Amino acid sequence: MHGPLAEPCFGTPSVTLLTEGTYPHSHGGVSVWCDQLVHGMPDVDFRVLAVTGTGDETPVWDTPAHVREVRTLPLWGPPPPGRAPRGRRLRRVLTDLEDFLLSLLDPAAEERFPAALHTLADHAARGELSPALRSEGAVRTLARLWNRPDLTTAAARPTLHDALTAVDLLEHALRPLAAPPVTDGITHAVSGGLATLPALVARHRHGVPFLLTEHGVYLRERYLSSRSEPYRWPVKAVLLGFFRLLAEEGYRRAALVTPGNRYNRRWEEHGGTPPERIRTVYNGVDPAAFPPAGPEPAEPTLSWAGRIDPIKDLATLVRAFALVRRELPAARLRIFGGTPRGAEAYRTETEKLAADLGVAEAVTFEGRVEDIRDAYAAGNVVMLSSVSEGFPFTLIEAMSCGRATVSTDVGGVREAVGECGLVVPPRDPEAMARAALRLLNEPETRARMGEGARLRVIEQFTLRQTISAFRDIYHELAESGRPGTGTDTPTLALAPAAGGAR
């Protein structure tokens, strides 16, 4: 279901969407957003460059005819084509690599990062970078560098194994630099991080305007996930240094940054985006596609929808539900959503937690549902327990269906809910349980909040508003990027995005 389209407008430029781990190979909120965008502008020539895992992923979205090309940029799988440089050429690559690594590890050298990144991109274009990073010389370069006494990594006594690990991870992360560059139109990265690499190269080499949309804060999520990664501090120092400087470079070089909420804006300004180049555009849904959900279940039921992933913090949800069951023994928790590859162990942990808390018989994992509206209708209250979000589709879809919600106070959640739902701190089962019990025990409050939530979506968060906002942005970027108008960092007019800017 894609809802009403914006009116066709001829002369819209071509747009290359840059994705990472999402559209068109994965389900989830960002993929839904991409699908809405391309279906909402049938007159635009879209291309998709998708950063993927192995390149063997099967698309789960049918792209429409005006998506001219879908190209994958696998991080793993076979390495990019190219021959290992030798002699003087290898020494040149390793010298440039050392400059790049130093920018990641030494605060005094951070200003070298942009030039060092584009130098590595030049090596990648010649097929030299990936083979060089797999060489013994690259490992020894890092091992020598981070043992310098003036760098903080030296105190951790990094090992040769650490160097092997860090260089291997960097080799995979930098593979998108080897992609043939985009030479025309607009690049539109739909997240920060590795998806911005082709956009930065296209801007640097060909002056292609670069639009960055952030749903969640990519850098924040990297920080969160690093806590559970099995690497020692020196390895994490390299990786987090890379992702931080890449985020800042994307913020600085984008012609426009369009966060999905005002919370993200603070990260983007702190990361170096001039405030005049930030424009908030909220996600939207079609209220006709998500009508009121109808009768509630007879038993007190909490429902949750999303992908099974640690960032969704189902552990807190299950702990909160166990507290709810103490007061309402008939309560149920229904969890809807698929388990992505790599998250199987997390689902098993969550199921074990439910068993350990004595509520396994009342917690059901329903898997993917044919119609997501059924997931919202399945509960008296719809829950969101994430530790990081952008402007979550599941929340505004549930609101459009007229269901009351309990959500964690992350990202743009409070902006979405307003006074039409309950918001609690993340990782706080007791607060979540109190909010859920209030709504389960007060049907009038629940009904009032559900009705208000639907009206809020209709007034502020419709798909038509979102599509119109991005159509306007594409036109502004195309105009600013034409010869003679200055493509270094185009400055856009600051007229409000239709229905979406705040």
TrEMBL record:
<dbReference type="InterPro" id="IPR022622">
    <property type="entry name" value="DUF3492"/>
</dbReference>
<protein>
    <recommendedName>
        <fullName>D-inositol 3-phosphate glycosyltransferase</fullName>
    </recommendedName>
</protein>
<feature type="compositionally biased region" description="Low complexity">
    <location>
        <begin position="485"/>
        <end position="502"/>
    </location>
</feature>
<dbReference type="Pfam" id="PF11997">
    <property type="entry name" value="DUF3492"/>
</dbReference>
<feature type="domain" description="DUF3492">
    <location>
        <begin position="14"/>
        <end position="276"/>
    </location>
</feature>
<dbReference type="Pfam" id="PF13692">
    <property type="entry name" value="Glyco_trans_1_4"/>
</dbReference>
<feature type="region of interest" description="Disordered">
    <location>
        <begin position="479"/>
        <end position="502"/>
    </location>
</feature>
<dbReference type="InterPro" id="IPR047691">
    <property type="entry name" value="PelF-like"/>
</dbReference>
